[in-house]
Amino acid sequence: MKEKYLQKLLTQKNNPLWEKIENKDNINIIIWDNNFSELFSDDYTTEFRLNSLNINSFNHELCHVYINQVFGGIFPTLKLRMPYELNNYITRNCLQHISNCIEHKLFFDLYLEIGGESEQFVSDFYLRKGNNFHLFHRSVSPNNIDGYLGNLFSILGDCNTNMDYSKEINGFRKLSPSIFEASKTLLCEIIDIGICDQLEDFGVNEEGVFINKTQSNSCEDFWNVVFDEMNL
Question: Considering the entire predicted model, what is its pTM?
Answer without folding.
Answer: 0.90
